[in-house]
Every structure is written in C-alpha cells, then in structure tokens.
Amino acid sequence: MGMSHTVLVVEDSQTINELVCETLQTSGFACAAAFDGEEALRTFRRMQPDAVVLDLNIPKVHGMEVLREIKGKCPFTVVVVLTGHGSDQTAMQALQLGADDYLTKPFRQAKLAQVLQVHIARAGLQQSLDLPAGCPGELEEHNLSRVFFHAPAALLHADERLVIRAVNRAAARLLARTPEQLIGGCLGDVAAPDVRAGWIATVQQDAPTPQGYEGEVHVLRGSETFPAHATAVAGPDPGHLVLSLRDLTRQKVWEERYFESKKLASLGRVVEGVAHEVRNPLISIGGFARKLLERAAPGSRDGSYLGVVVHEVERLERMVNDIEDYVTFSRQNRPCFAPVCLTEVLRESVRRHVEGGGTVEVTFESPEDLPFLYADNALLRELFDGLVENAVDAMPGGGRLEIALRLADGWVQTRVGDTGVGISPDDLEEIFDPFFTSKTSGAGLGLAKAFLIVEDHAGTIDFESTVDQGTICTVSLPLDRRRVARER
C-alpha cells in the first residue's frame, strides 16, 4: 500500500471496534479508536485521518452530526458508514450528507479494507483534480473554456473522429481520471466494454438530431462501472459533439426500494386472496374435527390424531387472522399526525409489558426538554408496544431492558435494548420480511408492521444483535416528518 493510511474507527462496541482495528492494521492501515461522538470529533480534529469508519448509532453526538462536521471541514476525508439491517433510508441520508460508502452489519472485515482502499485512492485523485481557477493549457483555446471547465455538469467534447478534445473538472471527478489522461482518448472508452460499440453508435446517430441523444449507459471508473444518465448534442464544429454524464447510483437505490415496495404490495394482494380462500375450508375442517373429537373415547388413538388436527387448525386460523389484520393495516392505515409526547408513549409501553418489575430490570433515559413529536400517537403506541414486548420475550429468564432517547439535529433517536437470546446473523437479514418469526405461534408480522409505521413517519428502524448477548433496536424519527417527506 506504500505509506500507511490513517483510519479513525468510531464504534461504541469495544469488541467490534477492536476487531475492525485489528483487521485494518493487518491490511496496512494505521488505526485509532473512538467510542462516542464527542471523542470521535476530538480525535478527528487532532489526527486528521485519511478515512473514518463510522457507526451512526453512537452515544453523546449522533453519527449523522459527526459525519456532517467531518465532511463540512474535510470533504476529501473518506467516510464509510456502518449500519444495521433494514437501514437503507439511514444509509441514503448518510450518502446525501457526503458519506462515501456504507456497509450493513454484519459485514466481512476484508470487504471493509477493500472499500477503504478504493475510496482513499479515489479521494486522493479527486483532491488533485480540485484545481485552482486556471484552465489546463489544452483548454485555453476552447470555446467558452472557463464556463465549460467550471460547469457543475460532467461535460466532454469530442471531434468527428470521437477523439476527446476537452473535458471539464466535473467529468474528471466523475470518471476518476485527470483531464490530461482523458484528452486524446476515444469518447466510446468512457462506457463499459460490453456496451461500448452499440452505445457510441447510437450517440453518433442521435446527437445531430433536433432532440439530441438521451439515454442510460454503464460508465467505466477505474475497474468499476456505474449507471449514468447521458445526453449528447452536436457541435460546436461540424461532426463534433458534447456529451453530458450524471451518476445514477443513488437514484437506482431508490428505484430498487420503490419496486420492492410494489412487489410487496402485489404479494399482499395475493396473500389476502389465499387467506380468504383458506378460511372457509379451515372452518369446516376444524368444526368437524372438534365434533369427532368429542365423540372419541378418552385416550384413544383416534382421539389423539383428532387432537393434533384441531391444534393445527387453530394454529392456521391464528395465522389467517394475523394475515388479514396485516393486509387491512397496510391498506387502510391512514395516520393522523399531531404533537405526541414520545417519552410518555414509551413509559406506557414499559408499564404494560413489564409487570411490577418482575425479573426484568428497566433503565430509562430521556432528555427533560425533549420536544413533542409530530406523529400518530396510536401508531407509535403500537410500534413501541411491539418492540418492548419482543425485548421482554427475548429474556424469559430475566435480564435488563434499556430504553434511551436522544435528540440530534431535528431527529429523535430511541434505542430499545435487551440482554436476551439475541438474533443470529442469518435471521437478522429476514426480520422485516412478512411471515418470518422465531416464535412458536403467529405469522411473524409484528416487525413488518413496525417497518410500515416507521416508513409512514419518514423515519428509520435498525437492528443490531449478538446471539446470547442481546439486541438493540434503534428507531429514528424526525420531529417534523413533513419537512423530511418534502425533501425526499
């Protein structure tokens, strides 16, 4: 790697922090550790590292605020965010604040080292491309050279032989190459090899038309490719053309989320139909089985068989009820937003599900000046009732339930932690999927419904868990969801 790059690892779990540092040091990085937001900012100002590995759910100062300050002061410092499962929205918010990449826990340590190496190399190149006001000598004679060179859109000018005659600073950043490396090359070479020939032929054909060329293409950046929106027009000289490129990576993430929600909606309609068709046969089977069971001799083999049938029918009936309730909720739920005291909502949930203390110890932290949340009170009660109930169920032999609320930059972060059985990494990938459950009864729709409630409030919900050590669920909600919804 040459000179070792410095990395600040910000993670409140000492075990994970030490593991990440050891792995990165093995890969040649020099590491420093921080365990909360305040320590992270102090260490960053003193150390000025090349990169920061940042867990967003950290004490004292929220990870989003740490990210905002780092990128505001040092935009070329690489920041790789660590998130829990189900936190695509959180990751997108971090990317919008300038994060370079994100990894979802649990992640492969080797992957983190690889990601850091790629982004540190790219940041170094981009910093070298952040040129002063002057233009390279090759561009001094180019038409409107200064406007072209400093335009915010990525622009490339090619002649009639498709030789690149000029590129601006934005294009150099986007393609991670210097203007000198791009000028003189073939315009078609910016596209991925497998689409290059057909794409450039279409560009040459459509650019001279009144509408010009517009389409999508996978663009080459080093050894990687990324989706881009491309437009091209003819000029400024006969046979020449000007190409504009825009990175679509983040837009594609949102499109995937949209299509996934459409698929889930379609699946919901199918499941609703199946549940409706299954209910009537279940009623018949259960009714006749119960009648036969009443007539069977006590202790007989037939009675034993019929008892199994009745038990399984009852289980299926509960599942059908759960499915119909979930479909009704997802289809007919219309939140009614008003000021809500989140602290009181959580205290009521604890009172309902932790009977008289019992074997579960409760710790509760909340700022005294926590403002009201603009939310649906009934939906928040249902959300946190489910999370607290799950936490208590995960500690059948007793344990500690920890609830903590924090306020950061217009958001309220609520952590519900337990010291229970935990969730395996494989199961952690499935917890928000309808019908996944680790319980012995029910359809497992509780967390799927929780996800919908958080989505309605323009928030995020994340889970971190270690088997036999416990689980932490973090719900982040904006004080005013209307502003967040408008931004999205």
Helix proportion range: 40-55%
CATH homology superfamily of the largest domain: Histidine kinase-like ATPase, C-terminal domain
The chain-level structural class is alpha/beta
Q: What top-tier CATH class of the largest domain fits best? A: Alpha Beta
Please describe the biggest sheet, giving its number of strands, its sense, and whether it closes into a barrel.
5 strands, parallel
CATH topology of the largest domain: Heat Shock Protein 90
CATH architecture of the largest domain: 2-Layer Sandwich
Total separate domains: 4
Low-confidence stretches: 440-444
Strand order of the largest sheet: 2-1-3-4-5
Beta strand count:
17
Notable characteristics:
488 residues; alpha/beta; Rossmann fold; Beta-Lactamase; Helix Hairpins; 4 domains; five-stranded parallel sheet; five-stranded antiparallel sheet; 16 helices; 22% strand
What would you say this structure looks like, in words?
By secondary structure, the chain is of the alpha/beta class. The protein folds into 4 domains: 6-129, Rossmann fold (3-Layer(aba) Sandwich), CATH 3.40.50; 137-247, 2-Layer Sandwich (Beta-Lactamase); 252-332, Helix Hairpins (Orthogonal Bundle); 338-487, Histidine kinase-like ATPase, C-terminal domain (Heat Shock Protein 90, 2-Layer Sandwich). It is built from 16 helices and 17 strands. It has helices spanning 14-26, 37-47, 63-73, 88-96, 109-129, 145-150, 169-175, 179-182, 196-206, 249-295, 301-332, 342-353, 377-393, 425-428, 446-456, 481-487; strands at residues 6-10, 30-34, 51-55, 78-83, 101-104, 154-158, 164-167, 213-221, 224-234, 241-247, 338-340, 360-365, 373-375, 399-408, 411-418, 460-466, 470-478. Helix 1 (14-26) packs across helix 5 (109-129), helix 2 runs parallel beside helix 3 (63-73) and helix 13 runs antiparallel to helix 15 (446-456). The longest helix is centred in the middle third of the chain and has 47 residues, at 249-295.
